[in-house]
Amino acid sequence: MLFRSILYHGPRNPLPEGYNPKKTFELLNEWKDKIIAIRGNCDAEVDQWVLDFPMMSDYSVIYEDGREIYLTHGHHANPQNIPPLDSNAIFLYGHTHIFELYEKDGITICNPGSISLPKNGNKPTFAVMDNCKLEIKEL
Q1: What is the bridge-based pairing of β-strands 67-72 and 125-130?
Q2: Biggest alpha carbon distance in the chain?
Q3: Confidence grade of residue 5 (pLDDT, cut at 50, 70, 90)
Q4: How many domains, the chain?
Q5: Where do runs of H (alpha helix) occur along the chain?
Q6: Would residue 32 count as lying in a domain?
Q7: Model's pTM, two decimal places?
């Protein structure tokens, strides 16, 4: 799973109605063995104190079916600044809260958008990956 700004959405964004960070981290901690999280630009060390899974890394690399999958928030590495990846890699990022899914130079590039704070008038979106095939879905 890829999360952006797990507990706080920054001073420039309105908090969604009914937002409850304590309940959020309690629910996420129940799935701690299944979560791969990376630090977003609004995540802080204090968030790590209440989460039972690591979330302060700038990126993570996993492999599925021999395919490299690079996960990052997107405020450093992004489609304009892709790190060196295998030619068949998947590059997953967030930051803009705007969904996109395309291929460039053999690399699949995906921003799942945002469930809680979609931008540009988009509906809430997320990405699903099955057998290294990505699909953007609306919530």
Answers
A1: unpaired
A2: 43
A3: low
A4: 1
A5: 21-29, 45-50
A6: yes
A7: 0.86
